[in-house]
Amino acid sequence: MPDDFERMWSDLAPVGRSATSGGYFRQPFTAPERELADWFREQARARGLALDSDATGNLVAWWDPDGGIVPDVLAVDPPDSVSQRQGLSRTGGVLTGSHLDSVLDGGAYDGPLGVVSALAAVDELRERGVVPARPIGVSVFVEEEGSRFGLACLGSRLASGAIEWEKARGLRDRDGVAFEEVVEGGGPGLLDGVEMFVELHVEQGRDLVDRGAAVGVASEIWPHGRYRFDFRGEANHAGTTRMEDRVDPMLTYAMTALAANKQARLAGERATFGRVEVTPNGTNAVPSQVLAWLDARCSSEAALGELVETVTRQATERAERDGTAVEVTAESVSDAVTFDPALAARIAADHESGDWPVIPTAAGHDAGILAAQGIPTAMLFVRNPTGVSHSPAETASIPDCLAGVHALAETLERLAT
Amino acid sequence: MPDDFERMWSDLAPVGRSATSGGYFRQPFTAPERELADWFREQARARGLALDSDATGNLVAWWDPDGGIVPDVLAVDPPDSVSQRQGLSRTGGVLTGSHLDSVLDGGAYDGPLGVVSALAAVDELRERGVVPARPIGVSVFVEEEGSRFGLACLGSRLASGAIEWEKARGLRDRDGVAFEEVVEGGGPGLLDGVEMFVELHVEQGRDLVDRGAAVGVASEIWPHGRYRFDFRGEANHAGTTRMEDRVDPMLTYAMTALAANKQARLAGERATFGRVEVTPNGTNAVPSQVLAWLDARCSSEAALGELVETVTRQATERAERDGTAVEVTAESVSDAVTFDPALAARIAADHESGDWPVIPTAAGHDAGILAAQGIPTAMLFVRNPTGVSHSPAETASIPDCLAGVHALAETLERLAT
């Protein structure tokens, strides 16, 4: 494989990796994720790309042939000023990129594949002597997974104006640290002049495996939401309290987790309780509280509403039996996103290998945020043999990853020249 | 109430208390619990009691009229040597006391009531001019709750020889810290010469409420055990993974928690899942692992074995359906303890108010460990109006606490003179 491509993956491989699971722990604004951000800055400098950043930590490295930057000269020892130069015109810019944070114990590709492929696609276009008519930007958005502050795509939401700083600043992580304590601020501005966004991502399912295709184009993202279920009971001694005297929120939670699974299974949708926090979480104490988060995704907004309503009703009915209380808070709800069909068709059509498949996904992405904010957006997926993601088992073959780089380079050439 | 009694409770009230819940967080070998140990040493010095300690941190303050210590002289400014004097004869000693650690978010009385009442009972006997024929010791055993290293009564187990140091040293807390890292060592020796043990404890149920009695005597402790259930599945993306493709250990756990509750309810026994640890515990990830601890207590050892076997079988059957795996490890199992009936009768009989009630309990205590090791042992319970324990709602009235002090003083007088 090309030298730079291999070197980039070698750089990334050890950062934030668990020696026991082989998975990645790249929580936003912690050492491993900050190391990746520094790595990206270095990649931009080495390529003579002009680096824009915002107060949230989102980064865009611009290849702007009209900006007067001659990559070959600057690649050796770029002056510091280059990496922070501002004020270049991004008008008509085509943006591509993804994120570098991970879920807890996540895979190697979710996020980094889009960033590495974007840089490699720029390298490929340059090697082929392509001079784009529009500036091409490589973006890294922070906190895409929402694994720290609970709101997925927080960086791209702020950059695109999908959420206001006043609403985001007070979000807290599990240790009680506020978002505003780890970033300087946030708001739109970074994406001014961006006319299109293309995100390449590892597929998080087996659709491309079934279709026998290395690369596909996204049609839509299912609506999805995160709901916090707060089950309240009464702490008590696990030995001396008779079963009939208990007010045990663990029981209400357990029934709710099973009910959510059953509802989603019957309806062909998705419902997951993957995060639970018990208070006091002692072996010999009936809990006073169980907090649990429902991740729900459905093929339509109506179906999502119905699923959450049904699960909430079943939880409430069980709470009445248990003497407990349950309160449900929607922490984030994202409507369905349909990617620009004309753009998807333009990307997918007329390849040597025939048209690329156009497929839906149930996973949220920064691309969904930008699309919802009115920026024409497309996504490319790269085949994932296991179909598994958010796990160390997530994978993609090197030939497929290289096919993804070529596909992205070809796409950028179509859109930016 | 007597000055010293009030002052002791005032000293203890703020230590390790949560401002939000009002509950106590006195984890073994952390600052609040160490502060309480220092407080106890100070109480012993102020009373001229000779302090024995062992490498595990267990403490016994001896009132030994034959040991040549004149309390009134030493109370003002006891020399340091007194607090560490060793080699006094404890032969025929009567020990009383309890523990100062708490569960996470526990009550004020579970443990401290027995320690404060023991010191106050010594004060009362001295005020009444009683000179015991046997030394009287006030004990504080560490890690009674097992809330840090997972094994209840760890301090008294080591002191009484119920567990060997080689088996205990490697126990680890939730942060991976080994027991041997926080203590100097452990083993028997501290209880040499102890002939009897009496532990006063707040009742952790409503038996004395129902009987209209302030004080009762224990007949037996139900057998009980702690079992770690390790549910294993496959981490995956919560959005993109179809329900039918999942291997989700949360479902196996949820069914098991409900099954354990149902079994215990039907059989009139106790089963609790109060502690759960999920990996990776992310909202948008199907978990790879759910660890959960079953606390089970039954009226007989056969019933306990049957309960745990049934729950394990149901968990295993559900795991087969879910494609998950479950492994059950008994972390600690305590056989039934019957307290010395003659001793209980001697304590309970012939009071002005009539006989004190003799009642069983499903809660484990250091008294159960010492009894199982062959030391004649008794317990006094003080009425708890809510019946709730291991919770900030645990309570006892001041008149009942004072009745407990008098009852303990009377008991010590019967046993030690």
Architecture blueprint of SSEs:
The structure is a homodimer of 417-residue chains.
Chain A: H1 3-12, E1 24-25, H2 31-46, E2 50-53, E3 59-63, H3 71-74, H4 80-83, E4 93-98, E5 104-106, H5 112-127, E6 136-140, H6 154-160, H7 165-168, H8 179-182, E7 194-202, H9 207-211, E8 215-221, E9 224-232, E10 236-237, H10 249-267, E11 270-279, E12 285-286, E13 289-297, H11 301-322, E14 325-334, E15 337-338, H12 341-348, E16 358-361, H13 366-372, E17 377-382, H14 398-416
Parallel strand pairs in A: 4-6, 4-7, 7-17, 8-16
Antiparallel strand pairs in A: 1-5, 2-3, 3-6, 8-15, 8-17, 9-13, 9-14, 10-12, 11-13
Helix pairs in contact in A: 1-5, 5-14, 10-11
Question: In a few lines, what is going on in this structure?
Answer:
The first copy, chain A, has 417 residues and is an alpha+beta fold. The first copy, chain A, has 14 helices and 17 strands. Chain A has helices spanning 3-12, 31-46, 71-74, 80-83, 112-127, 154-160, 165-168, 179-182, 207-211, 249-267, 301-322, 341-348, 366-372, 398-416; strands spanning 24-25, 50-53, 59-63, 93-98, 104-106, 136-140, 194-202, 215-221, 224-232, 236-237, 270-279, 285-286, 289-297, 325-334, 337-338, 358-361, 377-382.
